């Protein structure tokens, strides 16, 4: 059976962007895989990686490196509505931009939509 092991994000600054997710969500770094162009964080069920832009070349993706627009959405689940409400200001203080404040979706999740400091979209979710 297949399972998701990593979601990797291309980042201008892997140290700063991985640090943002560490500060907001408390994800510990996986120091054993640290390199000058990569940082990995343990999210508990999978991992979140940050690749420097040099990785476009390494992965033979250089022709796609100027892709623009929203290409993915990170969803980070928390344990309660209170956690969503508590974490949004923490994310904003750490450099996030609020796109949509906490609300109840039509599928009955409580979430907020934000942009990280490099403009990647993420949601803080509580599945009610």
From TrEMBL:
PROSITE patterns: VOC. Residues 3-127 form the VOC domain. CDD domains: PsjN_like. Coiled coil: none annotated. This is Glyoxalase. It comes from Variovorax beijingensis.
């Amino acid at each position: 059976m297949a399972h998701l092991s990593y979601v990797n994000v291309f980042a201008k600054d892997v140290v700063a962007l991985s640090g943002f997710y560490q500060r907001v969500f408390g994800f510990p770094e996986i120091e054993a895989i640290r390199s000058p162009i990569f940082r990995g964080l343990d999210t508990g069920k999978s991992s979140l990686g940050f690749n420097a832009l040099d990785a476009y070349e390494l992965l033979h993706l250089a022709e796609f490196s100027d892709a623009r627009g929203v290409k993915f959405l990170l969803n980070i689940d928390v344990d309660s509505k209170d956690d969503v409400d508590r974490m949004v200001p923490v994310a904003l203080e750490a450099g996030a931009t609020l796109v949509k404040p906490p609300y109840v979706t039509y599928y009955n999740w409580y979430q907020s939509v934000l942009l990280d400091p490099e403009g990647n979209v993420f949601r803080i979710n509580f599945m009610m």
